[in-house]
Structure formats: C-alpha cells, structure tokens
Amino acid sequence: MTSVSKKSSPGTKLKTINDLLKSKEDALSQLEMQSWCLIFAQVAGVCLAIADALMASPLVFAVGGVIYCIAHVMEEANKMERIKLQASIDETRVTITKMTDSYNQLKYINDNYKDLSVTHGNLNSFWGRLALDAGSILDQDLNIQQQIGTELLTTDNYLNAV
C-alpha cells in the first residue's frame, strides 16, 4: 500500500486509495488475460503432442511437451500472483470501506455538533431570560411585601387588630 501524507484531506486520501485500487484491478485483469493465454498454450502443447501420433515425429512430441510444461509452470506462477493481488485488492477495499465509514461518522458528529452548538445557544438564552425573570419576580416580591407591611403597620389597621 502506498503511504499517504498526513497533510492531505480525507477526500484526497480516499481518491488516492481508489486510484490505487483501480490500478490493482487493472493489473489483475492483465494477469487474468495472461492466464487465458497460458491455458491456450497448454492446450496447444497437448494438441502438438497428440498430433505427433499422426506424424510420428519425436521432435513434434518433444516441442508439444516442452510448450505444455513451460505454460503450466508459468500458469502456476501467474495463479500465485493473482492470489496475492486479489488479497491486496481485498485489503484495499476494506481500507476504503473503513475510511468511508470513518468519514461518514465524523460528518455525522460534525453536523450534530453544529446542532448542539445552536441548542447550547438557545439554552443560554433561555437560562439568561429565566434569571432575569427570577430577579424581577424577587424585586416585585419585595415591593409587594413592603406594601403589605406598610398597610399592616398603619395606625388604622393596627388599632383594628388590637
């Protein structure tokens, strides 16, 4: 896997990894094409060996056998390369999936943080207004208590109470 600089954005990293995945898939496609060519060469080698029965030439049989053996060995090597490349492609796809999921989760958190920030501002306004209202209620209570006390302590009310 190629290293991606830490300064690049998540979108750039994801694009780089997607490009890497595409190049690996192209390489796998080429290996699969080579595999079919090698299978064709194996079939051609077997056909030459069978054709030897008609021509009775040991040289044709030997050439057919050599072509088959070389194509078979190359096909096995090709198969090993395809297996390694497919594993690398699968790993790259997992990386892309993890990066996409992480990006989506961060986007969700960011969006919710913005909502939380707005809600926090609304709550601050609410509590601020509530504190002001409570202060004004206290002021009103003091005024009302003062009025009641003044009325109770006036001479007319005091004499009626006694």
Describe this structure as you would to a colleague.
The structure is a single chain. With 162 residues, the chain is mostly helical. It has one domain. Helices cover 91% and strands 0% of the residues. It contains three helices and no strands. The protein has helices at residues 10-55, 58-152, 155-161. Helix 1 (10-55) runs antiparallel to helix 2. The radius of gyration is 43 Å and the shape is rod-shaped. Keywords: Membrane, Transmembrane, Transmembrane helix. The chain crosses the membrane at residues 57-74.
SSE topology sketch:
Blueprint: H1 10-55, H2 58-152, H3 155-161
Briefly characterize the structure.
The protein is mainly alpha-helical.
Low-confidence stretches: none
Number of strands: 0
Order of SSEs? HHH
Radius of gyration, in Å, reads: 43 Å
Transmembrane segments: 57-74
Keywords: Membrane, Transmembrane, Transmembrane helix
Task: Give descriptors for this structure.
rod-shaped, mainly alpha
